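Provenance and format

Records in this collection were gathered into a single text stream. Each protein contributes a sequence line and a token line. The two records reproduced below are adjacent in the stream.
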Amino acid sequence: MATKCITITSEAYERLKSLKEQKESFSDVVIKITKKSSFSDLVGLLSHEEAEELRNNIKELRKKLNKELEKRLKKYDL
């Protein structure tokens, strides 16, 4: 396996070290924290009930925002 030498500040080192688990190498930590994520990583994050509550909250917020926007547009006769 090829290796590269890099220079980081003491603060960066301490932050990286704080993320490192006992048997992990610093390379493992860098790979873990720079992993590209996808929407499929979010599957199962919320329960069905939590997802439904979030969906309803978003709908209500959109209604309120639309009403407020309509008020402001009427105020300026737009």
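Adjacent record:
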Amino acid sequence: MFFLPFSLILLFIFLILLLPFFLFIIHIEIIRIALNKIGLSPSAAFFILLISLIGSGINIPLYTREATIFPQERNIFYLFHPFGVPKLHTEQVIAINLGGAILPLLLCIYLLPKAPPIPTLFATIISIFVCFKLSHIVPGLGITIPALIPPVVSVLCAFLFSPGNKIPVAYISGVLGVLIGADILNLPNLPPYPGIMSIGGAGVYDGIFLVGIISVLLT
């Protein structure tokens, strides 16, 4: 009787420690189900899932542009600069993420022959417009967009324009909506932050990969 509370505490701690592992397994299983719905075999789905997880940390540089840093602190050496603190010039690297952009684009190409052209075009244009309007540039973070709205928009467009063949339309419009509308169209408006600004690389997949997965699951 005296050991029961202690055992319950140990069990609770054990479950808390295993919770991230369970959430990771559920996350992987959801993506696997969505990839199977796209039409991929279990082995292909596992391979794509593995590449997406590894590729989320791989950014491929596209081009560089000048970035400027304005020093925030003013110390005693500031007195020796009568025309103000000199600006520090560095580079901003525009890159594309392997797991968050290139892989979803390859899946879009794979699904393109299965998607009706006109409905896919209309759904993609609407998704791009909505994502562009909802995206925001956050200093020091990059481009952000509400996570759940893009997949819902792509699914609604798929039901509206292609009720008989929803999955490829939902996936393609969802991925391209975020990739073009949120990331690419906002590149000219990005302030010259130093460092790497990755298309599809903010967060886990910048929402691009997961938007496509959620879009498939909702259809």
